[in-house]
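Appendix B, Record 12. Input sequence as logged:
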Amino acid sequence: MKKKSMIHLRGRIICRMFLLMVFFVLPGMLAIGQNTYRFPFLNPDLSVEERADDIVSRMTLDEKIGQMLDVAPAIDRLGIPVYNWWNECLHGVGRAGLATVFPQAVGMGATWDEDLILRVSTAISDEARAKHHEFVRNGSRARYQGLTYWTPNINIFRDPRWGRGQETYGEDPFLTGRLGVQFIRGLQGDDPRYFKTVATIKHFVVHSGPEQGRHSFDAVTDQRDFMETYLPQFEMGIKEGKAYSIMCAYNRYNGEACCGSESLLDGILRTEWGFNGFIVSDCGAINDIYAGHKIVQTPAEAAALSVRSGTDLECGSVYRNLKEGVDKKFITEEEIDLAVKRLFIARFRLGMFDPPEMVKYTSIPYSVVDSRENKMLAKETALKSMVLLKNENNTLPLRKDIGTIAVIGPNSDEDFVLLGNYNGTPSDPITPLRGIREKLDGKSKVIYARGTEWAAGMPVFEVIPSEVLFNDGNSGGLKGEYYNNRDFTGDAMFSIIDGSIDMKWGEKAPSEEMDVDNFGIRWTGELVPEVSGPYMFGFVSSCRVRIFIDDALVLSTPSFSMDENRNPRMRRSEPFELEAGKKYNFRVEASETSGEAEIQLLWALPEKQYLENLKNEAINAARQADVVVMCMGITPRLEGEEMNVAVEGFKGGDRINIDLPGIQQDLIRAIHATGKPIVLVLLNGSAIAINWEKENIPAILEAWYPGQEGGAAIADILFGDYNPAGRLPVTFYKTVDDLPGFEDYNMKNRTYRYYTGEALFPFGHGLSYTTFQYSKLKVSKKIKAGDEVTVKVNVTNTGKLAGEEVVQVYVSNLGSEFPVAIRTLKAFDRINLAPGESRSMSFTIPADAFSVVDDNYERVILPGDFAVAVGGHQPQMGGTEKEASILKALVKVQ
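Logged structural output:
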């Protein structure tokens, strides 16, 4: 009995040891083998789909909904940190402080250089990664500090009146698509496992103004224009660029809200094109579905419609109503799960939940931000973006020892005009005036005069000078009290006298002892104006600002939010009557919350007398000069996104007409009347009608919003240290009367592809200081439908200077029974040739270049005759045939 009991006891012990091994020891050993992950979604050995399934399965419905907002809250129990999806890098990391600022997108379009755009985008994503990890190291995860970037804007710049056209690569789907693909590739990187950043192409689809009506506007086109103009660049961005995100637009398209259209988002994007990334709404667009478009009645219905249609992420707050949508059976939790999984797949592919050493991009040093290499690239891009529109009698380049040069115009010495919109903050921007002075380095005398405002009714704002600011009866500035909190509570940490208020602290605070994201400054003293009249006050700041005169609030940051805080737009007051010599109590308060900090305190003097003085100063400057450089154009404070602007020629961010503002025209003619030779430099984001100037000014250079190195690039071109070769990515029309209505989205008589009139300067136009000749064109004379066509041509630099040429290949359908474009760009390349050098170029024209959209809205290739034209510009361009030859060939498709 005792022996049997012992055997039985041993058996029980062995059994228990086995069970212990199975349930406790073995799992532990397996966990050690898998690096002991707290949750499966933290295991990088699993697929991103498996990890997304796991992480979403652990969330409550409320937690899932929270992750579908642009500010996704932390879920501490799962170790998920807060994440802000909203970030910008249109032409440099935007709205996040210090960054290299490249030319605005329309200027990048004017480079016609795919390799350059890839290098620019790569530099931008380097800075984006470096800044993101620096923010995280400092415990900051605010807006504009993440890795999901809402760029590039690849909408078609169909009408020069659109204020946001500056954000695009121009009016042509092919050029836009080619450059957009490269920009996407540079942002997302080349790692097979991890994204460097996520690129979000926008705004899908058929979106290009008007800005003031975008929340209720219905863009209507026929299916042919939709397929030929509004879709191709998006398809290229998804299929070739592999963009992992796309933003749906505010407007409706043919009656359907773009962010609530199953046919657009699920049908075209996901089903036809195979898109497997995530879709984000434009900011406030879901609200528009019920409040603006009135497609549904309630927020819950709008949220449900958007998610069911395919919009995974909302910039806004309407998705908070999704729980009500589930309760009322507008949507299922399973449909919500699918959206949340897509969002977390993006975060996994960015390496956000993996050890940093696994993600090569985490090692990018912060020193790349504003690096010398990136500054050089910004200058190269600015140089390549500029378009020489006219150069009569070889007026340019100028001699560096010319004697006296007058630099005149409102765009001569303003930093912000270099930057366009959606911009970062450069450390050392170079204006045209500075660029010219540094280029000449004392060899010639340089005189500067502003000359005028940008437009009637838009006052010139300048930093308030210290001479009119008093403290305790002494001129020279205001008393600044610096607090280590944004609420001005307790005693100030220190007090000093500040002269003019024009500070940029960057990512630091005014003192090392202060909290960089939580400080306040109160400036007090007296303001004593020297001239009586109506003044306007303003500021450019990333802080929350308030201005008081005699204790009355004159101006403040409106509806304070994180976006306002991180988007330092110009704010201005209503006119405020002041008397000369009178003392006014003056108080300014600035509160910093997050990110990098800056403030400029501005005012505009009484307009009438000020304008007269400006004009007289400019005329006097011109009379002293041997040559005049006039830096004119417009400004991102006049054209842009849904702006509160209503001055002559402008409305709400868009343009009413396309002329150079009248007061600028008057100044140009007054300077011309002095008899001095003039070079006109335009800085702007859209085409300007300069009809009189084209006839009367010998040299005209289009510089766009050229980025931080713009002034240096302008000087290089004006004085011959760089030979310009940019080409227009848009048509310059003679008058707005040549265009259909702004709200008409049909393409008839729009852009070079359909415009039947004579352009002021056509798409693809751009001159050089040298000349090029084309020869030996070889094109297949007959092809079968569906075949590619190879185009070969020789290009020779026949001038005395090295220079770049943009070789352009256009295809025209000569006898289609269906409506077709007049001609369409199908290939291009930018090349550099030494004097006398020749190069043999080869282009492959894909079969679909010979296709049409038939009356069933199917793309088909039919027999017919096609003209292929190759040269440095479009064919049939009048006078420009003298600057470069155009070779043509006939191709028969059988």
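The chain has a mean pLDDT of 93.
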